[in-house]
Amino acid sequence: MSPSQITELEAIARAAGHAILTVYQQAFTVEYKADESPLTAADRAAHEVIVTELARLTPEIPVLSEESGDAELQARHGWPRYWLVDPLDGTKEFVSRNGEFTVNIALIEQGRPVWGLVYAPVLDRLWYGGKGLGAWRIAAGERTAIRTRPHREGTPWRVVGSRNHLSRETLDFLAPLGEIELVSMGSSLKFCVIAEGDAELYPRLAPTCEWDTGAAQAVLEGAGGSVTRLDGTPLVYNKADILNPWFVARA
Questions:
Q1: Which Pfam families match (predicted)?
Q2: Residues of the chain with pLDDT under 70
């Protein structure tokens, strides 16, 4: 990914964030999809911004968004390379107005996220990176390289978990670790906290979809971390089922 492309992708994410905040700052209605997940005008507005701008920037690369239709969901199986987008990750956080939601844009090649960008509009923080490429955070106008900090023996495990999906299976997974410091937060921010070195573990033993994880996985892997299934194999993309298996993100 060239510096000029990164600059343009950053601008796309920020434009989507602006569209989200326009809705966030006023009264809005909430609809529910067939799977009972919430949907707002902000999801749709961010989707339109990102899909339109990616088509302009890279017309040769198709786009799959959480708000795409069935045609794209079927066609993706023939795509060796595509953009994977969650225009508003953490709609429940958006609805509850706690600020913990993100814009997510990932580049998938041969089933792996090779580059990703995560933007938190309320925090005005942006993270990007990819495995073998490094990872960076942009905050308060400063661009800083980030790196994970693995767990040190004899200290509590610093664990991030979902505010809305902390399942019994997750608690059982954590039990053998001993002392933990658990921080609950929403959306793909959990990966970014690990990428910055402020946590070490994020076990997800509850449902997610590929667009929920692709961008943040790339950032975390760029910072030296990993995202694997429970058996230790990599979390891969463009599977027959858009749902992810259970996984663990580690520093």
A1: Inositol_P
A2: 36, 163-166
Please give the C-alpha separations between residue 179 and each of 54, 204, 215, in angstroms, as whole numbers: 45, 19, 30
Segment 149-208, tens digit of pLDDT: 999 999 999 999 876 666 788 888 998 998 999 998 989 999 999 999 999 999 999 899
Question: Is there a binding annotation on residue 66?
Answer: yes
* 172 annotated binding-site participant: no
35 marked ligand binding residue: no
| CB of 156 closer than 8 Å to CB of 107 | no
Across the strands, what pairs with 31? Answer: 39
Whole-number pLDDT of residue 166: 67
Q: Is the pTM of this model over 0.90?
A: yes
Spell out the residues 6+ positions from residue 53 whose beta carbon is closer than 8 angstroms to its own: 12, 15
**Which amino acid type is present at position 104?**
N
Check residue 192 and give its pLDDT: 98
166: β partners: none
Is 89 flagged in the annotation as binding? yes
- Supply φ then ψ for residue 165, to 5 degrees: -135, 40
> Which residue segments constitute the domains of the chain, with CATH numbers given?
3-145 (3.30.540.10), 157-250 (3.40.190.80)
Instruction: Return the axis-axis angle of helices 41-57 and 3-24, rounded to nearest 10°.
Output: 160
Within 8 A by CB and 6+ apart from 158, the residues are 151, 180, 181, 183, 198, 199, 200, 201
59-67: which pairs have CB atoms within 8 A and are 24 or more residues apart?
61/107, 64/211, 65/211, 66/209, 66/211, 67/43
DSSP state of 52: H
